[in-house]
Design a protein that fits this description.
The complex is a heterodimer. Chain A is α+β, with helices and mostly antiparallel strands. Chain A is built from 7 helices and 6 strands; from the N terminus they run E-H-H-E-E-E-E-H-H-E-H-H-H. In chain A, 39% of the residues are buried. Strand 1 of chain A pairs antiparallel with strand 3 (65-71) of chain B.
């Protein structure tokens, strides 16, 4: 901070970083990316969504201006691969970015779901809107698998009615694959 | 819907309202090409520590801000000089103003000076154009506003400039910065908003676009005033509602311009016996009554805006106009009690004498295009006595 000896006192402020919140988001996005990768090998609905995307389609979800991000790429006909957290290291066809860290925290602590965040103009979409809708549907399916029902209800617009067996078996498979990274 | 044969509308203000609204500031400034804003605050904002949430909104953005607090408005010229020098020396490229009232006038003056290089307002009064592209300006008012912050009016001493280009590009209303003013201050702010909204909605030059702002300002202001008057439970977001009403009222005023009631209030305030807010709150019902009688303007809608659709629906059609005026006067009477007489019911309550009224009417008549001095004096007489306008005088 610098001060200038005038009648009005001027000072410069560079507000710091929220380490805890960034770490929480980084971990969430990392696991979410791996869970999307796993879900594309387990769930039919997710595979259908990826079938509708162009070849080698790459999307990123994260927080402006400096991240963290999660990058996922389509490979083969209907699979996804988690491509890391560095958006600047690769070309991305679609970016969904929260305008600020607090908006990301609101969504990933389930106080606002993605449609509400979009309605409140907290999210910026850079790319085809139709593909963004596909990505949001994939995120919703993955969140239903990852989260217990009371929390998932807060995270998604409409909680799906799935057979219990499907939910529990796929959930186990997705968690296992996300942990081992396959 | 009635559309006029011709209409114009411009409101360049982008509004961010609600929880975490402040956190959108960095993104919006970057969209305007700003990288180093100058954050300025008046004395009240510094005292109430309203800068802290604004600074926190810039965490994780890697932006550096210049900050100047405690800016007095007693010597505007001196403050302007210093702020201009700081802005230029420190290579700032946007202004964020936390405050209200005359401080925002200072901020607009600063923006105009920095954008044009011209400090003297006289040149603009004499015809120099105010450019459309001024420096990015974001305003963060509180619930202690005077209603002119978001308007295109710049008032410095005896000089008033009016232009849509003077309206701030960005407005941020967040519960963290709406402050916790006392009830009387919030009543005054809400009354300013109500006046601006009603005058815009019921003026001859109204159009559907202006009506959107005016209607919302009127409804929010009335909702807040009813809570402050003790009608119904008080909402925990009352302060931000009042700030929002004032901001919308200012936008409506910026789109519409000053009306008869503003000229009268200004003339009354010149006597030194009352503030413009006190005068406006007394005059509002009498102006509406006069308009409904002399111009056959339909003021029934005020009952719908202020009293709600249920009240409007259950009131017989021919009683709505009178019911609307009664609603307003009853509310003012309750506010008179709540504020210990600070908000007057009549011009007599706020300290004017009968003998002063002709001079006030003449002074207002020189600025007003809607009414002649004789009509203005008649309105003032009714407002002084507290007697409804009945078309006989």
């Amino acid at each position: 901070m610098t001060g200038i000896d005038m009648e009005l006192i001027y000072r410069e402020v560079t507000p710091g970083r929220s380490i805890l919140k960034r770490t929480y988001l980084r971990i969430n996005l990392w696991f979410m990316g791996r869970a999307i990768q796993a879900a594309s090998r387990v769930d039919d609905q997710v595979r259908r969504e990826f079938q509708g995307l162009p070849e080698n389609f790459t999307f990123a979800l994260g927080v402006m201006p400096n991240g963290p991000y999660m990058v996922v790429r389509k490979e083969d006909r209907d699979r996804a691969r988690y491509a890391g957290g560095r958006i600047e290291a690769q070309s991305v066809d679609l970016t969904l970015a929260f305008k600020h860290l607090e908006a990301g925290i609101l969504t990933f602590t389930f106080r606002e779901n993605t449609p509400v965040a979009t309605a409140r103009d907290r999210l910026v979409v850079d790319g085809e809107v139709a593909y963004a809708c596909s990505v949001v549907r994939v995120l919703d399916i993955v969140q239903v698998y990852l989260l217990p029902k009371p929390i998932a209800r807060l995270a998604v617009k409409r909680y799906p009615r799935w057979p219990l067996a499907k939910k529990w078996i796929n959930r186990t498979r997705i968690y296992w694959r996300a942990v081992i990274g396959y | 819907m009635h559309l006029p044969n011709f209409m114009e509308f411009e409101c360049p203000v982008k509004t961010h309202y609600g929880d975490w609204a402040l956190n959108h500031i960095p993104f919006e400034l970057k969209a305007l090409g700003a990288a180093k804003p100058l954050l300025i605050a008046d004395e009240a904002a510094s005292l109430e520590k309203r800068l802290k949430p604004v600074l926190e909104a810039f965490r994780d953005t890697d932006m550096t801000l210049g900050v100047v607090e405690d800016i007095p408005t007693s010597d505007m010229q001196n403050s302007l000089h210093q702020l201009s020098a700081i802005y230029r020396d420190k290579d700032c490229d946007a202004i964020i103003a936390v405050g209200q009232g005359s401080f925002i006038d200072l901020t607009k003056w600063l923006n105009l000076t920095l954008s044009t290089g011209e400090e003297s307002l006289a040149s603009f009064s004499e015809g120099r154009l105010i450019p459309r592209a001024l420096k990015p300006l974001a305003v963060i008012p509180s619930a202690a506003a005077d209603g002119f912050e978001l308007s295109g009016y710049l008032r410095i001493q005896e000089t008033t400039l009016a232009s849509a280009h003077l309206m701030p590009q960005l407005l941020f209303l967040d519960p963290r910065t709406s402050g916790r003013p006392d009830d009387t201050t919030m009543v005054e702010t809400a009354l300013n908003a109500l006046t601006n909204g009603v005058e815009t909605f019921f003026c001859a030059a109204a159009n559907p676009m202006k009506a959107v702002y005016a209607r919302t300002a009127t409804m929010l202001a009335t909702e807040a005033l009813c809570q402050l008057a003790g009608r119904g439970a008080r909402d925990e977001r009352l302060a931000i509602t009042v700030a929002h009403a004032a901001a919308l009222g200012g936008c409506a005023l910026g789109c519409q311009g000053l009306s008869t009631i503003h000229h009268l209030a200004h003339a009354i305030a010149s006597t030194g016996k009352a503030t413009p807010t006190q005068a406006q709150s007394v005059l509002l019902s009498y102006m509406l009554e006069r308009r409904s009688l002399e111009t056959e303007m339909n003021v029934d809608l005020f009952l719908s805006l202020a009293g709600g659709n249920d009240r409007f629906a259950r009131t017989p059609e021919h009683q709505r106009s009178a019911a609307a005026i009664y609603f307003l006067r009853n509310l003012i009477n309750q506010l008179f009690a709540i504020t210990d007489g600070k908000i007057g019911r009549t011009l007599q309550d706020i300290g004017l004498t009968r003998e002063e009224l002709p001079a006030i009417a003449e002074a207002a008549g020189r600025r007003d295009t809607e009414c002649e001095a004789s009509s203005l004096e008649a309105i003032l007489v009714h407002a002084w006595e507290g007697r409804p306008v009945d078309g006989t005088t």
